[in-house]
Amino acid sequence: MRKPWIVGVVAGFLLLGACGDPASGPDAAPPPVPSTARTSPSPSLTTHQRPVATPGAGTETKPAAEIKAPAEPPTVLYLGDSLAMENQKVLGGLLRDELNARYTSAPYSGTTLCDYLEGTGEKSLVPPKDKAAALVRSLRPDFVVLQFWGNAWDYTWCMDGITHDKARDEYFARYTADARKLTDQIAGAAGGADRPKVVWVLQGPDPITPDRVRGVNAIYERQADASGDLLADAGKAVSPATARYTWAQYLPCTAYERDRAEDCTQPGRDRTALHRDDDYLHFCLAPTTSKSRPCPVRSPGILRITREITQAVASATG
């Protein structure tokens, strides 16, 4: 924990697929825009229906008795940035195992809310077929889970160059407007039928700009309240118990993790790793690669996050 993690932060900013506000970091610049990015965004690895869990990643979480399977299996759509990209197979396995859910995921690394809005044209990293409204029209989900860290890098074109470090008020105002627009487009895509419930995933701590994540989460909370939607406080599950917005690379093992050696990475110290030494943002304990991918190894942070999302969906299904 006492290693010079700032070096890891800077290194993490240089890896493709990160999703944060690198201009806020010490001497860190946004990564260059790949020459093919406008026509070939990071593949979403879209997964449909009931995917098999990532080998080695595992999906076992709370005992089955703690999550009651609904009488009618829900249909769940999962959208988001690189955090959703790394989570998607574990979440799919959990929703399948615990709720017998039908599941589709279409995350794109480096994205923000406006990328999933219809009408953004070429200024989006998400192709038309995977826009939120397009997927709602084709899949008719019961739930749309949205997980966005708050990316505002300059190469996220639909943000029109608005970044947290240079224009905080404008950044939060834009995020507020986009959250409302995305909710409206999801509702409109239902075509008069019962619209899907939106599940806003609250984010974990940001060690560089902790108030930014507070602000982004507050936007999600207000939007969920205004539209009668749901929250999944996944960020709390990866925060210290008494310090919701204090970043930590390690946390004490939970009782669940102590019962499973692979989930308590340092049992001798009764703590488990949430982040790698070289990546303060992502929760996958495998090295970040140039090509975005679902996490290929069992990672306690991902399991904690996806358990909270699964619980939020389960609670709303009755």
* Helicity, as a percent range: 25-40%
Radius of gyration: 18 Å
* Form type: globular
Beta-strand percent range: 5-15%
Distance between the termini: 41 Å
What is the number of helical segments per DSSP (H or I, 4+ residues)?
Answer: 8
Main sheet: strand order: 2-1-3-4-5
Instruction: Give the low-pLDDT segments.
Output: 1-18, 20-65
Biggest β-sheet description: 5 strands, parallel
In N-to-C order, the SSE pattern is HEHEHEHEHEHEHEH
Mean pLDDT: 82
Number of strands: 7
Task: Provide the structure class.
Answer: alpha/beta
Please describe the structure with a list of short key phrases separated by commas or semicolons.
disordered N terminus, 318 residues, 7 strands, 32% helix, globular, five-stranded parallel beta sheet, single chain
